[in-house]
Specification:
Helices cover about 50% and strands about 10% of the residues. The longest helix has 17 residues. The C terminus is likely disordered.
C-alpha cells in the first residue's frame, strides 16, 4: 500500500493516472476517507493525474495524539506532494478538505494552480458546538454521533432510499478512529480564515449545497465567494456531501472550471484531432483531399464546431457520445452516417453487445422499421469487421431435453 512519511505522520495516498498530466488533489470531509471521491475519479483521469489521500487521523493514515490544526493538515499536504516530487497542483477539498484548501491558497499560492472549495466555510459555526461533539465522541465513540452526522451529510431523500454512497460513508464514519476524529474536530473548531481570504489569489471555485445544514450558502459559501478575489460560485441541490448527492453535476463543475478554455485556433486543431481519432485516418484523409473552394467552409464548420466544440466536451465520455450519435442517426434514418459511426465505433470503444442494446432501445422509441434497418446495417458491419454478433448465452430449454 502506498504510504508517505511526511510532517511527522504516515499518510496513505493513492496516485492514479498518466504522469504527464497535471496533478489534481482531492481532499475529503471529516469522518470519511479518500474513497469519498470514487464517483468522480474515472472521468477525472482522462484529464488529470489524481492524488487522493486519507487525512491524518482518518482511513489508513496514521492517528497521532492530541489536537490538530488546519495548518498542521495543510503542511501534511505539502509534505505529501514534496515526497512525490509534485511542484504544482490543483486542489479540490470538501468541508474539512475545503478548510485545508483555504490554508494552502493563503500560504502556498505559488504551488496551487486552481482551488475548489466545496461545502466549506471560513469559520465552522460556534466553538461550543464542536466542544459538544468532541465530548460525545470521547464518551461514546463514533456510534454516539453517527446518526446525527449522517443527517448532515445527506438530505432526507437520500437517506430514505437505498444508497450505496450513504452506506459507504456510514461504514467509513463508524470505522474512523475516535482519536483522529477528535483531533480534526479541534482543527475545525479553531479555524477562522475570514481575515486572510483576500490573500487567496489563485483561481477559485466555491461550491455550496442548497440542502446543506452544516455549511449553508448564507454565512459560509457566500463569504468565501465574496471575499476571495474573482472567485466563481455554484450552488447545487444537495446536502453536505454534494459530490455524492449530485456526482455528475459536481464532476461537470470541476471539469468546466479546471480545464483550460481553447481559443478559436485551438478549437479547430482539437476538432481535427478528435475527428481523426474518432472516424479514422482513412476517412479524414479522404475528406481532406476532397476539400475544395465549394465545400471548404462546410468542412471548417463541422471540424471547428461539431468536433472541436461538442465532441471534445469533457462531460460525456466518447463511448456515450458514440451511442447518442448512433441512436440519433437510426431514429432519423441517416443510414450512411449510421454505418460510418458503427464502423468507427467498433474500432474503438464499442462492442457488439453495445449495438444490440442500442438498437433494442431504438425499436421501442423510434420504431421497429428504423431498428430493423439498423440491425441489418450493423450486422453487415460486424461481419466486415470479423466480429460475431452477441450470442444468447442461455438457450431456452424445451421439455425433457433440458434434463438430459
Amino acid at each position: 500500500m502506498p504510504f508517505a512519511n511526511c510532517n511527522s505522520a504516515r499518510l496513505f495516498y493513492r496516485l492514479e493516472g498518466i504522469s504527464e498530466k497535471p496533478v489534481l488533489i482531492l481532499s475529503h470531509s471529516i469522518g470519511t476517507d479518500h474513497a469519498m471521491w470514487t464517483p468522480q475519479v474515472p472521468d477525472l483521469l482522462s484529464h488529470f493525474q489524481v492524488l487522493r489521500y486519507d487525512t491524518r487521523g482518518h482511513g489508513a493514515s496514521e492517528v497521532t495524539a492530541g489536537e490538530y490544526s488546519i495548518e498542521l493538515l495543510g503542511r501534511d499536504v505539502l509534505g505529501l506532494v514534496d515526497s512525490l516530487r509534485v511542484r504544482k497542483f490543483a486542489f479540490c477539498g470538501l468541508s474539512l478538505g475545503g478548510a485545508i484548501g483555504q490554508w494552502l491558497g493563503v500560504n502556498a499560492g505559488d504551488r496551487v494552480t486552481s482551488l475548489v472549495l466545496a461545502n466549506t466555510s471560513p469559520k465552522f459555526g460556534e466553538r461550543s458546538n464542536w466542544e459538544a461533539r468532541i465530548k460525545m465522541v470521547r464518551e461514546g465513540g463514533m456510534a454516539a454521533i453517527v446518526e446525527m452526522v449522517m443527517q448532515r451529510f445527506f438530505s432526507p431523500q437520500t437517506l430514505a432510499a437505498p444508497s450505496d454512497y450513504a452506506s459507504m460513508i456510514k461504514l467509513a464514519l463508524l470505522g474512523t478512529d475516535p482519536v483522529g476524529y477528535i483531533g480534526c474536530c479541534a482543527a475545525i473548531r479553531d479555524f477562522d480564515s475570514r481575515e486572510t481570504l483576500r490573500n487567496i489569489l489563485v483561481p477559485t471555485l466555491v461550491i455550496s449545497g442548497d440542502r446543506d445544514v452544516s455549511t449553508p450558502w448564507a454565512g459560509n459559501g457566500e463569504i468565501l465567494a465574496g471575499e476571495i478575489p474573482r472567485a466563481h460560485s455554484l450552488r447545487l441541490p444537495a446536502a453536505h456531501l454534494s459530490n455524492l448527492e449530485r456526482p455528475r453535476s459536481f464532476l461537470a463543475a470541476l471539469l468546466e472550471f479546471l480545464l483550460p478554455k481553447p481559443h478559436d485556433a485551438q478549437r479547430y486543431e482539437a476538432g481535427f484531432a478528435m475527428r481523426r481519432s474518432t472516424l479514422g485516418d482513412d476517412y479524414v484523409d479522404r475528406a481532406t483531399a476532397a476539400t475544395n473552394d465549394f465545400n471548404r467552409e462546410f468542412q471548417d464548420l463541422i471540424t471547428r464546431y461539431a468536433w472541436g466544440s461538442i465532441w471534445t466536451r469533457p462531460q460525456l465520455d466518447l463511448r456515450t457520445r458514440r451511442l447518442l450519435v448512433l441512436a440519433t442517426m437510426a431514429a432519423l434514418g441517416r443510414w450512411e452516417e449510421f454505418a460510418m459511426h458503427v464502423r468507427s465505433g467498433l474500432r474503438h470503444e464499442l462492442e457488439p453487445c453495445d449495438l444490440k442494446e442500442l438498437l433494442l432501445q431504438t425499436a421501442i422509441y423510434a420504431g421497429v422499421p428504423a431498428a430493423n434497418t439498423a440491425f441489418h446495417i450493423a450486422q453487415k458491419e460486424l461481419e466486415s469487421a470479423g466480429l460475431q454478433p452477441p450470442l444468447q448465452p442461455y438457450p431456452e430449454a424445451k421439455g425433457n431435453e433440458a434434463k438430459q
